[in-house]
Amino acid sequence: MTTLFFATDVHGSDICWSKFLNAGKFYGADKLILGGDMTGKAVIPFVHQGGKNYRITLLEQVFDATNEEELADLVKRVRSRGYYPYMTTPDEIAELEKNPERVSKIFLAEVLKVVQQWMDLADKKLEGTDLKVYCSPGNDDMDEVDAIVRSSKRVLLVEGQVIQLDAHHEMISSGWSNRTPWDTHREEDEDQLKVRYEAMTSQLKNPRNAIFNIHVPPYKSNLDEAPELDKNLRPVLAGNSMKPVGSTALRQSIEKVQPLLGLHGHIHEGRGTSRIGKTLCINPGSMYEQGTLLGTIVRLGKNKIEDYVLTSG
Amino acid sequence: MSDLFVRKATGLVRSWSVMDAFVYALFSINLITLGLYSFSQMYYFEGGMVNALIVSALFIFFEVVVYAALISVMPRSGGDYVWQSRILGGAVGFILAVTGWWFILWLWVPLYGDMFRHIVLVPILGVLGAKDAALWFAGTQTGAFTASMITLVIVSIFITLGMKTYARIQKFSFYGGMVGLLIVIVLLLTGSPAAFKAGLESNATSMFGAAPGVYDATVKLGTDAGAILPFSGGSLAAVFLVIPYLVFFNLWPNWGATLYGEVRGATDFKRNVAGMGWALGVTTLLAIVFLFAIKKTIGWDFYVQAGGAWWNYAWGYTPNAPALPVWPYPALLAAFLTTNKLVQLVVVVLMSLWWFGWSGTVFLSSTRVIFAAAFDRLLPEKVAEINERTGTPVNALLLMVVPSIVVAYLFAYNIASFQTLTLCSTLVIAVTFLGTTISAIVLPYTKPDLYKASPIAKYNVLGIPLITVAGVIFGGFLIYLLYEWIIDPNALYGIGLKNTSSIIYMLANYVLAAIIYFGFKAYRKSKGIDLNKVQAEIPVE
User: Fold this and answer.
1) Most buried of B112, B129, B270, B323, CB within 10 angstroms?
2) Which uninterrupted H or E stretch holds A172?
């Protein structure tokens, strides 16, 4: 029997990444699968105020550090939410205000720096174990992330691949999503997603025993309910109106292939499980900004799922 | 955080409209359904209604702060269940969540049904001339039970339609209901006591077959019932004794809290406080204005006496049936001020929207808790299944509907004095809120890293975290309420230790929850899944 642990949407949280790497031992899992969206969403400028003084604005609150200890504490707070601290000066901030392109470059550099740190940590922590991490960056992850993941010994980039997870189960993976209102790095139209999925499913030797590690959840699976937004990206009706935003192409593929298991993420609010025909679909959700690693443990039998549970670590 | 340093990424939404949050919170502390229903039952209290409304709102504002703060620290988490589970442990979280958000809602169904017949069915049927049908619903046990069954059908349809559609129904109901309320208040403020008395005599006899002299007979029956509730004034002690009954109406602004979206910062905390806080304030003000309008034209004493006459008979304290054979619904009484049938119909139909825009909440929260428990493997996977054709959570719905039918039957036919359990509906949820409040009080100390990196980290009062201060005040308020309900030294609330049925019913809820929790935990363990471990925090180092 194979026990897999799946988590997703850690969005730059150091705490969640460390927990993920420890999850194999903690839960007794043989396989670690990381869904997409490993990178964070915001850079927090630490503005030098002279001497050892820095000022930051975190979640619309101003914090001051007056010594190295306080600075380290603030950096830890920022990283715990998956944001990237950036040491800067008032002059540079003024310049960046006029030059958003430079901000993008800083953003990318900070993201890649942390991804490299994460790969180094994975190689170190998983050394001497049989554990490897199967990873397919998600729609929020820049293309440049892939090269860094490829350089890792313990984290395997499996985007677009069919891999033999164990003797009985193959796994297909993709971090690409259907279109979002944010025009992110890896999103495309449903017909293109269909082609992407077919390219993998056509290679499956035993489709009914396969695992679909697909970042976006299937449409109308109850794992894809997100607040309805207006054209200004404002939740309508105070967020009380939820609508399905998953992929129709993925749903069709699952209905057709009927794999054993679907592992999804993307919609952080969509924590839950759902059946599409015989396929068990799971979205463990994400609470990365609280440093809580949501995940799922699935015990795979020869031709069935022995058991599963959602975790909150 | 400056937008300059936030990239475009999935889920980064703008803040929701405070007005929308206000609408849902305002509907949760529903003046027309919960408010008027409970006000009419409070005829025997000695503390002033206006004073009690204001004092209770001051305390409940701290509930708003507690919930807005928790949402800011732990958004998108599923509310009370997750907050309590993470801070107080899985057993406490599960037991308090399923009792407060699921089991006790079975008792709310006949209460929703009772309000449905009094606020929707009877007034509309009466105005339409269907006297016999109106009286059947108003005055018979089978009518009450049937109203509960219709309620179940309606709220099940709301569940089937889904939250996206129901949120729109709620918004439409808000505007329609507000127009109705405005008309009612205008009718009352422009009417006179003499016109009301004449209108009552005329309409109550023609519409519902009341005997002539209905006004005076109601005054007598109400006086005999001990109707003394003052409009305002009373000692502070007397006012405080009103509050445990009054919170049946206004303890719920947190139901309108917005749990979704990625919190952008302290502004979102303030927006949630504003949405819920304004709803609490505006509803309190509306209640005072409405009661003032009632006082001006219907007459405060008559309003209280009519409530006394109705409930004294309904609760079995007197064999004398009320002279007005329908519940004294102020909107209907206001409609008696006009002889225009169309205006009367418009008034009662628009006012019925207060019920339709609110009633769906009885099952929406319950289905969420059932799903969350199933995902945590504390219930069978089957209960979280969605019917692919209709998109309806059929099994979760059955877990609500079937027990609700049993409880509604017991309530309608008053078996084992079930009609005395009304305030149990509030008590059990208050216990759940107390669990959440304790979680809020200790959060900065038990989860310091989480708290310090949250949008409310800098909100302090004399160096103590605001969430803790607000929690202590609201927690103290809840403990006072629980003391009055359970010990009930003045025999005012009809539940608690003085009412064996209520204690058995409430304990049965908690015992059932504990059996499910520990039973499933043991079962999962036998299958190799340690639920303690799957909820435990993974070491970081």
Assistant:
1) B112
2) strand A170-174
